[in-house]
Amino acid sequence: xxxxxxxxxxxxxxxxxxxxxxxxxxxxxxxxxxxxxxxxxxxxxxxxxxxxxxxxxxxxxxxxxxxxxxxxxxxxxxxxxxxxxxxxxxxxxxxxxxxxxxxxxxxxxxxxxxxxxxxxxxxxxxxxxxxxxxxxxxxxxxxxxxxxxxxxxxxxxxxxxxxxxxxxxxxxxxxxxxxxxxxxxxxxxxxxxxxxxxxxxxxxxxxxxxxxxxxxxxxxxxxxxxxxxxxxxxxxxxxxxxxxxxxxxxxxxxxxxxxxxxxxxxxxxxxxxxxxxxxxxxxxxxxxxxxxxxxxxxxxxxxxxxxxxxxxxxxxxxxxxxxxxxxxxxxxxxxxxxxxxxxxxxxxxxxxxxxxxxxxxxxxxxxxxxxxxxxxxxxxxxxxxxxxxxxxxxxxxxxxxxxxxxxxxxxxxxxxxxxxxxxxxxxx
Length: 428
Fold this sequence. Notes:
With 428 residues, this protein is an alpha/beta fold. Helix 7 links the parallel strand 7 and strand 8. Helix 12 packs parallel to helix 15. The protein is globular. The protein starts with a helix and ends with a helix. The N terminus is likely disordered.
């Protein structure tokens, strides 16, 4: 019996269910990519690194190609190309706003990525604002806040609610709670609705890093009563360098412009009058028009496909992957809240006796599988999960993990190939 057949039969035994018919999803650019492995062979690439950057969807590529012939600067040109590009750019803003369920008065500022969005928000905080953040955060939402109150990784979701409640209760003056919606390390979903309720009960606001959520689940900012949401296009199948900060306009309208330059001003003379509109105020210069168009096209493609189909296919593949990993001696999946907690298509793990880099290099060089290894820009959280000290493993790489992440374009064969490869690596 081949290793692949063994894995498939093991997964069937564990799940107890026959594999359903495949779901028709949008195509991704590069689905037919072949990569070299040892011996000089070319094999189909198994991209399992979606949490770092997702491949481009074909509809996104088509939208950018359609925009290029009339590409021009936006907002201040009278020519046809400028007018058309401006209309496409502002339509993109409307599309992304609808995609996240923004309130009618919410601002949407196009930025470069989630890190850029969180830094913009950090620059826009009212004087004296105290930020509360969990140490489980990605660096994009952990590091922009000077002198933040950092909360230890909670042992269960209820403890996250309790810790946030106690921290916010002790703060006088404006406060902001910052939290991820889905962990980029474990994929686990956080109780953002409950945390928003607690924040508002204390007169605070909540900002949610949704970078790992929006490629996998629908998001309704208004229904969840979130104040701010940030995410990146490159994780949402639109790798053209755009992201957004969406949320309440008042802090953004009162803040100094994030960038000082053309487009952010009403007039320049002896004094400068900045735009009162928060979107204009923080988008100085020529923006990433194609990035915005790409991001909107990705939102349209996911909406047209429907979240039910997307989630059903992802959960099928994720269950297959996790069940396969569980059959391999020496492989340990990382989790903050246990194996049964809901999560998106992200799995991090360690292989006994192997460093994460050794595993990742073997998967790539021998099997044509792309994964991520390291601390995933979440150093404190990974050290907590692996039992490392404050600086343990940073220099020599021992406190690191391997991360496999799935999305549109992931196939059953990709998952089975990874499980088969890890079985051989762990047994070697």
